[in-house]
């Protein structure tokens, strides 16, 4: 885990401190509250990074969250309650695979080590926030702004042909006010 790693120094330490400074305890607290409401688990909703990590690091709560949003996504026999590190990391991987299937964009999904080794808890928050926006899609309380829905429009062939005769103003117009006749500066003497 994170306490077994060597301390970062130089450029690596600066980069790590920048990433760590982006962590938002208020957002983490809101996400933990959302998880607590959905799963019914008795978890602390303090947004402190230590509490956030301790609550989610074994991946069990995350797997339960997925199963609340879409029951049966992660079978109970796949969720590991073992104390072994790789089994806990496996739970996080099950969560990440399921989140991608539920529609969270790949650029908003964190890597297992971001949570397991506390390398980037901000990316964990971003992933959970993206999942929380999709809550209403699965009939549960969502968190954050409502996601846009597709609005597919089907035009008949006649409507498509009618649109081809219209010249869009994007192509310009020779009507109305224009700059013809404007002479700026000195004229060119030949």
TrEMBL record:
Family matches, as Pfam families: Calponin (PF00402), CH (PF00307)
Entries under PROSITE patterns matching the protein: CALPONIN_2, CH
UniProt domain Calponin-homology (CH): residue ranges: 25-136
Biased composition (Basic and acidic residues): 144-159
InterPro entries hit by this protein: Calponin-like (IPR050606), Calponin_repeat (IPR000557), CH_dom (IPR001715), CH_dom_sf (IPR036872), SM22_calponin (IPR003096)
Domain of life: Eukaryota
Signal peptide boundaries: none
Region called Disordered, residue ranges: 139-159
The family this protein is said to belong to: Belongs to the calponin family.
Name listed for the protein in its UniProt record: Myophilin-like
Origin species: Limulus polyphemus (Atlantic horseshoe crab)
């Amino acid at each position: 885990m994170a306490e077994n790693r060597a301390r970062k120094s130089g450029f690596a330490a600066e980069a790590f401190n920048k990433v760590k400074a982006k962590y938002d305890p208020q957002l983490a607290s809101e996400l933990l509250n959302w998880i607590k409401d959905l799963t019914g688990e008795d978890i602390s909703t303090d947004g402190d990074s230590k509490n956030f990590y301790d609550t989610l690091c074994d991946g069990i709560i995350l797997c339960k969250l997925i199963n609340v949003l879409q029951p049966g996504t992660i079978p109970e026999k796949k969720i590991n309650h073992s104390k072994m590190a790789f089994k806990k990391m496996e739970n996080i991987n099950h969560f990440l695979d399921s989140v991608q299937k539920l529609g969270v964009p790949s650029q908003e999904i964190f890597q297992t080590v971001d949570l397991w080794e506390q390398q980037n808890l901000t990316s964990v928050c971003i992933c959970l926030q993206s999942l929380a926006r999709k809550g209403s899609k699965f009939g549960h309380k969502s968190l954050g702004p409502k996601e846009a829905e597709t609005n597919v429009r089907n035009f008949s062939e006649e409507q498509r042909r009618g649109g081809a005769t219209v010249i869009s103003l994007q192509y310009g117009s020779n009507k109305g006010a224009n700059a013809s006749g404007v002479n700026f500066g000195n004229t060119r003497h030949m």
